[in-house]
Amino acid sequence: EVQLLESGGGLVQPGGSLRLSCSASGFTFDNYGMSWVRQAPGKGLEWVSSISGSDSGGDTYYAASVRGQFIISRDNSKNMVYLQMNSLRAEDTATYYCAKDAYYNRRSHFDYWGQGTLVTVSS
Amino acid sequence: QSALTQPPSASGSPGQSVTISCTGTSSDVGGYNYVSWYQQHPGKAPKLMISEVNKRPSGVPDRFSASKSGNTASLTVSALQAEDEADYYCCSYAGSNNLVFGGGTKLTVL
Question: Cα–Cα distance between A38 and A53 in angstroms, integer?
Fold first, then answer.
């Protein structure tokens, strides 16, 4: 059974940083891309970032809204994917979902999702 | 990329069919066969219902079907049931390794 468990959310001041983590299990982690999708309170879904499957590292992709601000990474030895979020702004307030890509390195669809972790940017 | 356009709401009575549209451009929906649909119940994570325009994952009832014509994709829910009441989001590949979601449609089962 595929399981994705996010952690690391919380309250952070504007301009601050936060690192989200996602622990994955139930599939061959190296073989699949992983992504982060966010949802602001009461709003729709927004793709944030993806990282390809990889033997080491992976190719990374970002939405224009977070490029240069967020960094996605993965540790295949731990079946973990991370999202380093810097220079946070109020508009980054959202529930952040970790999602499994259906493919190794193709932006297509997400076949499994975690339960999400809430990030609140406020003073 | 701009969000794909979905109607904010849709409704139908139990047993009826309802179709939700998702309109984009030739740079996203119309340009690629990578349209997916997600169901989200309140307070829950999204769930994949349709991938690659019209492919239904294992476990998704065959009451859910989808198609695409030009720049518009559509999700049809047949034989509506109470548990189908949820928010539905379309998503499309938009080129250059970008993905774009629709604004979401709240489906109400009357």
Answer: 21
- Token pair recorded at residue B2: 């701009």
Three-class SS state of A90: helix
The residue assigned the tokens 């859910």 is: B64
Question: If DSSP codes are grouped into helix, strand and coil, which group holds residue B82?
Answer: helix
A-B contacts (CB, under 8 Å): 63
- Per run of 10 residues, the mean pLDDT along chain A (length 123 residues) is 98 98 97 97 97 82 97 95 98 98 91 98 97
From chain A, the residues in CB contact with B48 under 8 A are 109-113
Residues in chain A within 8 Å Cβ distance of B3? 44
Contacts of B90 (CB under 8 A, 6+ apart): B4, B6, B20, B22, B29, B35, B36, B37, B38, B73, B75, B101, B102
Query: How far does the CA of residue B16 sit from the closest CA of chain A (Å)?
Result: 26
